Amino acid sequence: MYEIIRKEILAQGIKLFETAAPEIAAKAKPGQFIILRQDEKSERIPLTMADFDREKGTITLIFQEVGRSTADLGRLEPGDNILDLVGPLGRASEIEKFGRVVCIGGGVGIAPIYPITRAFKAAGNEVISIIGARTAEQLILQGEMKAVSDHIHITSDDGSIGKKGFVTDVLSKLLADEVHVDLITAIGPLPMMQAVSEASRSYGVKTIVSMNPIMVDGTGMCGACRVAVGSETKFACVDGPEFDGHLVDWQLARNRSRMFLAEEKIAQEHSCSGGECQCQKKKPE
Amino acid sequence: MPVPKEKARVERQAMPHQDAAARVTNFSEVALGFSEELALLEASRCLDCKKPTCMDGCPVEIEIPEFIKHIRARDYQMAIDTIKRKNNLPAICGRVCPQENQCEKYCVLGKKFEPVAIGRLERFAADWEMNQPEKAEKDLPGKSGKKIAVVGAGPAGLTAAADLAILGHEVVVFEALHTPGGVLVYGIPEFRLPKAIVEREIKGIRQLGVEIKTNMVVGAINTIDELLASGFDAVFIGTGAGLPYFMEIPGENLNGVYSANEFLTRTNLMKGYLFPEYLTPIRIGKRVAVIGAGNVAMDSARTALRLGAEESYIVYRRSEKEMPARQEEIEHAREEGVQFRLLTSPVEIIGDENGWVKSLICQKFELGEPDASGRRRPVVIPGSEYEMGMDTVVMAIGQGPNPLVPRTTPDLELNRNGNIIADESNAQTSKKAVFAGGDIVTGAATVIQAMGAGKKAAKAIHEYLSSL
Fold it and tell me: How far is A222 from chain B (nearest CA, A)?
């Protein structure tokens, strides 16, 4: 059992849990993830770690409520327990002094890019961060990212904060302006990571993305998390989650992310008919 | 040894089963177990040989004639106690051991008649005990002061842990999943091995003083070296064959293609068959092809029918004779309506415009000369390609060794396939104080072979610790 010590609502539908997990906190590195199972009947879901505190023995999870399992999770409160929490899983980010590094976070993807950005900064890199969200209200960890970046660019889809547009607009301009970049790391929704990879491809700048496919065990046992990288099939859980964005088969990744959409709907409806969920009590928009 | 006439007259008793038409609609156990009457009849067939060859076929050396003698005397407690001297998981072995290749293969009666149904009798004794009121306290042995880490709570690890605990050592088992049992809980389906049985057997192992820590991925949360440095005197690695193989044919990453491990883990461990009450989905189409013909393939094909598939196929490139699954499992699958496409293998999986499986392009084979495995090599028939419409494809062509422990233990010697090299007689690896056994050493094999390896390792670890 893993107790939730602190809960914050960062934006609508985006929640933060600081969770007691001393053994995981002792070992966690930027870029790694955990898998949790909320209770006996829940799915196992992978979440990247947004932070870890070795002294306090806690890890920080930030997640967006996108379906039944994350919605159930979001209803937990401080003092509640998560039944199973396993990690740290996956390979850690390769952190060394590359020179000038661009760290890009989109939406809730800003959460996992934060510890990576911090580590790049600590390793002596010049860090340019680009973070973006749909609206100002949805933008998370702005202060934290600012603190670990040499330069920070902010974008929003509606222009309510920073530049109106996408994170890729900023990246494309940097590259077009012949700003020398040694490495790009991007985490966010699949279309964003693909767009970042496409933007940097012709400049030949190495671009790392963090894939978040469907997983079950997270230890290489089931192969649900297959990602095609170049001519090879990789398991994101043990070979990743970070891969070369220029080599990822994005269409396949999108297809695979939709594998259980129909079941997701059934799970949502089941929840509503069970009467536990609040969604039908809200007024339709 | 001449077979006395009266022994031969009683025929081998058949296992009562759930009717095939009924059972494909549920996940309840297929084989119902012997009644007392059937068990007594079957036990009466044992010749009680002076030199019991059956024991030669048992990887854990159960005193078979002795436990059968106790059944004959209706002393079921003595029967199960006899089994448990050698085997800590009898209710499981009685169900999933391939007895026809082990103890029963060497039964003297089998030379002229049918062998004694040793496995069914083992299950009878184990199930009898499960129905007795639980004994309050087990007698725990004196403490040796030595501490052993066991990596992986599957058949090899659990057996090693139990034996070491009985020898008085402190044992901590590290399990990556949220439930101990390994393949017994994620792989073998409920209808062949009820999870309540596994739980009960594991409870018995905990009562021996074994501590099982779940959600602990050794290789991630700690390493073998860290375990040794933190006060463990020895480590046993039983991490199993936890990396599924794919065929590396086009279309294998389409939606609707599962590894057997994923398909079975979703269904068994995560209880996907109870979706949406349990939240892990498993999507099944109308037509399901399972590639391969081992026990895992049969489990997958039968699971598909229970999940609602209209047609379930076994696609296998050799012939019926070469199928590695137990005969009993093949028969069960056939009774339930699984269809066999033998001497057939897919060369490509075709997808629809949304990336879902649509069909399988298969090639036909004929049998040629024997290959290195002694089985006749399948040879492609040129121009034999044909298309089978399909919604779901399950790859059940085997598993490789899980890489997490080897990757973080640089001085552990591996073979070409990535299996840990360990001495067959004493499970010793290239690393001091580190032992290994089960599928991580041999490649994918059977539950009982892994248990046999766990047993040998426990003995060797005990000797090693005693020499310190």
Answer: 4
